[in-house]
Design a protein that fits this description.
This protein is of the alpha/beta class. It has a single domain, classed as Rossmann fold (3-Layer(aba) Sandwich), CATH 3.40.50. Helices cover 27% and strands 21% of the residues. It has 6 helices and 11 strands. The strands form 3 sheets. The chain has a 6-stranded parallel sheet. A 3-stranded antiparallel sheet has the order 4-9-8. β8 and β9 form a beta hairpin. α1 packs across α2. The longest helix has 18 residues. It starts with a strand and ends in a 10-residue tail after the last strand. 44% of the residues are buried. The structure holds 6-phosphogluconic acid (6PG). 6-phosphogluconic acid (6PG) binds next to α2. 6-phosphogluconic acid binds next to α2.
Length: 244
């Protein structure tokens, strides 16, 4: 696994780096196939989506991009908690991506049925490597409790699951979620964490620097088998990285 960390002075600089990396990866995909990306929810991804919509509408061939989600709250697509709605309003409505390239997790459906249906849809459209669909790109956020996607502390069994998507639950709100499993995430070619703000500094340092208790944190179990792991942090989220 190749892990690298980039630290930026602002969310705009972080967003620009993310956008240019994404544009370059999409461009390098052979014309014979699509580029598959799994989006994340969260406040940092929302800002990055807005940047992409404003600055990369014409710099990415969106016709080549298939959009999935790494997790979704079990709410309707019109809910203000929907990761789909957030991505739609901040990015997808503003770039020329065909509706048929967008694969929403149906948060309104029965979670257990939808987790299976969505795994099948991913298997149908995302090429496999070692018998498992391999996303070209997965973006992830980091919760203050060390969760990522919707894999929360205490749910580390989701890194041992043979399934691609499972039903999870936010331990605070008890809200059901559908999440990619560790197997699904760690199969990806490029995994990019987007982490900003002082509130994430402690957790980011614990995971990146492998400090006390790091092994129990879901985000510490993200390590692509044959891919790249890239951390994109702003300087506030990175402020505890160098503290001994
Ligand atoms: C979600 C995300 C979740 C998020 C983190 C960080 O559905 O909310 O998948 O993993 O990325 O909770 O969120 P913030 O960037 O808003 O702190």
């Amino acid at each position: 696994m190749e892990q690298s960390i980039r630290i930026f002075n602002s969310i705009d600089e972080l967003s620009q780096f993310f956008a240019e990396k994404l544009a370059s990866l999409v461009k390098d995909i052979p014309a014979s196939r699509f580029f598959s990306i799994a989006l994340s929810g969260g406040s940092t991804p929302r800002l990055v989506f807005k940047y992409l919509a404003s600055n990369f509408r014409d710099r990415i061939d969106w016709q080549k991009v298939l959009v999935f989600w790494g997790d979704e709250r079990c709410v309707t697509p019109g809910s203000d908690e929907s990761n789909f709605r957030m991505a739609k309003e901040s990015l997808l409505d503003h770039v020329p991506i065909p509706a048929t390239n967008i694969f929403r997790i149906r948060g309104e459906a029965d979670p257990y049925i939808e987790a299976g249906r969505y795994a099948e849809a991913v298997g149908q459209y995302v090429p496999s490597c070692h018998d498992s669909p391999q996303f070209d790109f997965i973006m992830l956020g980091l919760g203050e409790d060390g969760h990522t996607a919707s894999i929360f502390p205490g749910d580390l069994h989701l890194f041992r699951s043979d399934r691609l998507f499972e039903v999870a639950e936010n331990p605070d709100t008890k809200q059901k979620r559908i999440t990619a499993t560790g197997k699904m995430i760690n199969q990806a070619r490029h995994i990019v964490f987007l982490v900003t703000g002082e509130s994430k500094a402690e957790m980011a340092a614990r995971i990146i620097k492998k400090r006390e208790g790091w092994k129990k944190l879901p985000a510490s179990k993200i390590h692509p088998e044959n891919g790249e792991l890239l951390w994109l942090l702003d300087d506030r989220a990175a402020m505890k990285l160098n503290v001994l």
